[in-house]
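Kindly inspect what follows.
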Amino acid sequence: TVGAVNLLFTIIAIYSVDRWGRKPLMLAGAAGMGLCLFAMGAASYAGRTEVWVLLLIVGYIACFALSIGPVTWVILSEIFPTKIRGRALALSTFCLWTANFVVSQTFPIMNENRWLVDTFRRAFPFWVYGTLCIVEILFVWLMVPETKGQSLEEIERHWFRRTPLGQVSAEERQKTAV
C-alpha cells in the first residue's frame, strides 16, 4: 500500500510540477507532511494506535511523494548557475543523505529515551520532525524562487542581481530587442 501510494503521487508530481509550479508543490507537501506528523504525535501522546494512524502514515508518504521527493531534484537542477551546477548538486546530494542519516539515527534515540517516552508518550520525535516541516515551509517561502516557466539564464540572473524571477529590467529588454 505504501509503495503504491508513493508511486502514484510521484507520477502525479511529475505531471503537476510544470502546471502548478515547484514552490506551491513544495509548500503544500511540507504543510501536509507537517500536519500528518503533528497528528501522529497527538495520536501517540493520546495512546491511540488505531487504523487512522496508518492513514496518517500513508498521507505523509503521499505528501512527500507529491513534493519533497521528486520536486527537490527539479529545483536543484534549475537553481544553480551552470559553472557550479555539478559541484552544487554533489553537495546538495551529500546534504540530503546526511539529513536522511540524521533522521534514521535520531528517531530511535528519541523514541526509546525513557524520559521522553514517559513525558511525551512517544510523540516527541513526530513533533520534532513536524516542527522541521514548519522550518522547511519558511525556508521555501522565503528563499526558494519559483522557477516554473523560467529559463536557466533568467534564474541565473535572479541570483546575481537579486531581481524577482519573471521581471526583466528595461536595460535587459533593450539588450534583447531586435
Observations:
- The chain is about 80% helix and 0% strand.
